[in-house]
Design a protein that fits this description.
Elements (H helix, E strand, L loop, with lengths): L4 H10 L8 H13 L5 E5 L2 H11 L7 E5 L8 H5 L3 E5 L10 H13 L6 E5 L8 H11 L3 E4 L7 E2 L2 E2 L6 E5 L12 E5 L2 H11 L22 H11 L2 H19 L14 E2 L6 E3 L3 H13 L5 E2 L15 E2 L3 H8 E3 L8 H16 L2
Bound molecules: pyridoxal-5'-phosphate.
Pyridoxal-5'-phosphate (PLP) binds next to helix 3.
């Protein structure tokens, strides 16, 4: 926590606003909108996954539809497609950003259209905080008239050509889960430039209650609104977001400075115009074997590290989904390792991680 979270939570208690709406929710939404550049509408929700679910529904995804999704991501990017009875179609990544490959995306759309099924939406992800190529993806989306759902769960504080991640798609989602760059313990948000879409999201998130004195429903709703207590935590966290981004980027620079010169070790650079919050520092090793050797050596020292996201086209749950591949995400999964990346890591912690990795590679 940063400092003022407790006092905002106390405000909720003192004013007896222990509900899924209230002044903290309003102030938290305003703070997010301000962070994203001020011209967007924000609906605070109970999770990023819930935000994806509502976003896809608002974009018109229906049972039997197909939705394109970046394969190299966390399963929560794709699960809501299935909640709606639609089918994910997975598309591989490009080397430069590790995110959706625009050429492959265009091929996939053409191929689905030849099969008589035009995808209803595109879920593009700014993985590990690195923005996707919004210009190239936007052009493809525009050419085929398919909306983009921007999964910005890992990239609050990142920018693309000076524009905030979270404002690049038709609808964007954020996550405030415990592992994200800032947290409300659990929470998320839907972001859109359209006021009527925010209103629709809030309506659906609060059980789709029609305007009547009694409880009247003409649509199936959800219980996805953020609680006023947790939004108090969010208000405090927004005040320290910049510090968190600085700390995460400092971790990345430290690791790259001390490990990046070793032959075979690589870190993902920011292309011109890209600014990553460096949510997690990821390192590429020469091979799966070396990756595992390092991971196990760290574990011996009680240091947790983790392979990169397993591509969704390799996940048993999605084995029957169509996919369009180029080998990039499988290679990243084989060779990549997420290093300890907490905002509160000390210089001593970072030294210990780097020391263990250097020693392991020297013994190779
Ligand atoms: C965390 C995450 C989500 C889901 O957010 P929750 O708030 O945990 O539901 C979705 N997509 C990506 C890429 C994530 O990392």
């Amino acid at each position: 926590m940063g400092g003022r979270e407790q006092s905002f939570v106390n405000e909720a208690f003192d004013s007896n606003w222990i509900a899924p709406l209230g002044p903290n929710v309003d102030r938290f939404e305003e703070a997010i909108a301000l962070q994203l550049g001020g011209t967007v509408e924000v609906a605070a929700l109970s999770s990023g996954t819930g935000a994806l679910h509502l976003g896809l529904e608002i974009l018109g995804v229906k049972p039997g539809d197909e939705v394109i999704c970046q394969s190299f991501t966390f399963s929560a990017s794709a699960n809501p497609i299935c909640y709606l009875g639609a089918r994910p179609v997975f598309v591989d990544s490009e080397r430069d950003t590790w995110n959706l490959d625009a050429n492959l995306l265009a091929n996939a759309i053409e191929d689905r259209m030849r099969a008589g099924k035009k995808p209803k939406a595109i879920v593009a992800v700014h993985l590990y905080g690195m923005p996707y190529n919004a210009e190239a993806i936007g052009l493809v989306a525009q050419e085929y008239g398919i909306p983009v759902l921007e999964d910005s769960a890992e990239s609050l504080g990142s920018t693309y050509n000076g524009v905030a991640c979270g404002t690049l798609g038709d609808i964007a989602i954020l996550s405030f889960n415990g592992n994200k760059i800032i947290t409300t313990s659990g929470g998320g948000a839907l972001v859109t430039s359209r006021k009527e879409w925010k209103e629709r999201a809030v309506y659906l998130a609060t059980q789709a209650r029609d305007d009547a004195p009694h409880y009247q429903h003409s649509t199936v709703g959800y219980n996805y609104r953020m609680s006023n207590v947790l939004a108090g935590i969010g208000r405090g966290q927004m005040e320290v977001l910049d510090d968190r981004v600085t700390a995460r980027r400092r971790n990345f620079d430290f690791y790259r400075n001390f490990l990046g010169g070793i032959p075979g070790i690589e870190f993902l650079a920011e292309p011109q115009g890209y600014y990553s919050n460096r949510w997690l520092t990821c390192m590429l090793t020469p091979s799966y074997e070396v990756r595992e050797k390092i991971r196990k050596a760290l574990l011996e020292e009680n240091i947790e590290s983790r392979p990169l996201w397993k591509p969704l086209h390799l996940q048993p749950v999605f084995e029957n989904s169509p996919n369009y591949l180029n080998g990039v995400s499988e290679d990243l999964f084989d060779r990549g390792l997420c290093l300890p990346s907490g905002s509160n890591l000390s210089g001593e912690d970072l030294d210990r991680v780097v020391g263990t990795i250097t020693k392991t590679l020297q013994n190779d």
